[in-house]
Amino acid sequence: MKPITKLNRSDMDLRGVIENSAGGISICFFNNKGGVGKTTLCANFAAELALNFDAKVLVIDADPQCNLTQYVLPEEDVNDIYSQQDPETIFSIIRPLRSGKGYEIELPTRKSEKFGVDIIIGDPRLALEEDLLAQDWRDARSGGIRGIRTTFVFAELVKNAREKNYDFIVFDIGPSLGAINRSVLLSVDAFIVPMNIDVFSVWSLRNIGQTIATWKKSLDIGLSMAEEPTEVTELAPRGKLRFIGYVTQQHKERTGYDKIDGEDGPTKVKRKVKAYEAVGAKIPKEIEHYFKDLYASPDITPHLGDVKHLGGLIQRSQLASEPLLTVSGPGTASRGQAREIYRGLVRALIKNLQAAKLFGA
Ligand SMILES: Nc1ncnc2c1ncn2[C@@H]1O[C@H](COP(=O)(O)OP(=O)(O)OP(=O)(O)O)[C@@H](O)[C@H]1O
Ligand SMILES: [Mg+2]
């Protein structure tokens, strides 16, 4: 497919990297802090990969809030689907496990024409499965095969999607460190951390780093004690959950002017937000401190880029269920800027995936 926006020569090379790779890279956007722009980033990253880099992308809404689904599908479709008694959703993947029937083989995908991706839509019923996943996690940690099977339910989904030749399999999850998110994270190759620049985000980096390390350790112990080692080898995901980069975001308007009294009366000076700058300066070190052991490769450039406050463009894009890349009409003056930003993010991600040898792995 022809790119929506013009690609330069090195972008065309990156497009070639995707085309010639074995594909099937699974990525999750995650931060333990809510409202940092995970869903917006996930959807628009996916659209840039699909519409400009011609990648075959599957997005999976594993957040029971279903924000991703609402974003990438037209409102009428969303209303029709969720008015049904029992729509096919991500819940269809989990349900057979509850009744002890093993994994669901069919992927319940739909198309988002505007974003150019396939989607497995979210489901509020997923929240009811936290209990099952939590119980079975305890079992998995002590080597129980049932628990391991449940824990790897999303790994099986990823495996299926790889067989369907998706280049990227991208999960959006909610902000908790609960059982669903654990199961998703332990199934993917890599995670990206979208974050705000504030002190709470630094706390959440600490939470994520520590929690993921603990999960991985517990799972390794569980797998080593497994009742049926051959089945475990088949079940264990290819993904080893590595950190592939972070994206800083600036959702509050930081620009503006302050009045300062000078010798010649008051003058307007560009506003400086001291706390913001101080926290921002600390972030690279904090990332390294908490994620170093999880780096996909020592050669990655962890900061994938910075997303500016895109104000009206975001609302317009949500309203139209259309990516930032293509949405038009009133309020879309910053679309060119958004295109630049997302192009930069995708370039940086592909380079990191190359550095981590995840292409063709
Ligand atoms: N670049 C941006 N500029 C301005 N507003 C943005 C930007 N990105 C996201 N937002 C707004 O911030 C809000 C939160 O974004 P989003 O839903 O993507 O966050 P989230 O991290 O997925 O939230 P949750 O933790 O609830 O899943 C949304 O209302 C969205 O419109
Ligand atoms: Mg979200």
From TrEMBL:
<dbReference type="Pfam" id="PF13614">
    <property type="entry name" value="AAA_31"/>
</dbReference>
<dbReference type="InterPro" id="IPR027417">
    <property type="entry name" value="P-loop_NTPase"/>
</dbReference>
<dbReference type="InterPro" id="IPR025669">
    <property type="entry name" value="AAA_dom"/>
</dbReference>
<feature type="domain" description="AAA">
    <location>
        <begin position="27"/>
        <end position="223"/>
    </location>
</feature>
<protein>
    <submittedName>
        <fullName>ParA family protein</fullName>
    </submittedName>
</protein>
<dbReference type="InterPro" id="IPR050678">
    <property type="entry name" value="DNA_Partitioning_ATPase"/>
</dbReference>
